[in-house]
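We treat protein structure as text, and this decision shapes the records that our systems exchange. Such a record has a labelled line for the sequence and another for the backbone structure tokens. The record that follows is passed on verbatim for readers who wish to inspect the format:
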Amino acid sequence: MKSSKSKALNNVFTVILSILSLAYVYPVFMILINSLKQELSITTESAFVLPTAETFAGLENYVSAIQAQGFMKSLGFSLFITVSSVAAILLFCSMSAWYIARINSVFSNVFYYLCVFSMVVPFQMVMYTLSSTADTLKLNTPWNIWVIYLGFGAGLAVFMITGFMKGIPLEIEEAAMIDGCTPIQTFFSIVLPMLKPTLVSVGILQAMWVWNDYLLPTLVLDIKKYKTIPMLIQYFRGSYGRVEMGPMMACIMLTIIPIIIVYLAGQKHIIKGVAAGAVKG
């Protein structure tokens, strides 16, 4: 009786979660089908129906999106910002987490709780002063905005990596030092490879955040000189300065596809890394 009741409850949850999943996927599906339509079909009542032989535009919208307003330039900015920010977060936060997990001192404990506290501070509280500080310190270009992303991404990264780090036996590092390894050699040769599961998880989560972020680059970067992909979509203009819905929808799809591929490729690592970082230690 208990088994059948539990099975029925699982089926109910499966149905509910499936409906919620469809609700989340539906907007992406709508963007996809409209990116394949002609302009007039998107701005009329037929925007919510599948493309027909008369309304189908093929890849014309995607070609227009790539050619309009420097799409490739914005793609390069977004790619560089994402890669540099994630690389900095993984390197510096893994080293910080190693120090926190191995050095039991007042400073390490205070530093750890400050990182955890930073996760609950709303971005809106600091965004106005952030813009002024970024201008003063010359952090308002795509080449050094990774410093700001490092500050905002350090909280979650340090929290997850520290939890995983506490589950790694200290004896492994002691054996490496007995064999003559310096602390730096021990970290890069012994510790860093063992952190791979949680580093992959943190990297994918941070990459999704940085790639899709609109607010921070808009506040910090000079819009006239630099536009990331989310900024380009917001200010998308076609010929004669008007918004062309077809190319804009195609531009959105070109933005969504890479991060979906990255997430699906690393989904199992995210689940393992989050579970390990939350349970260990």
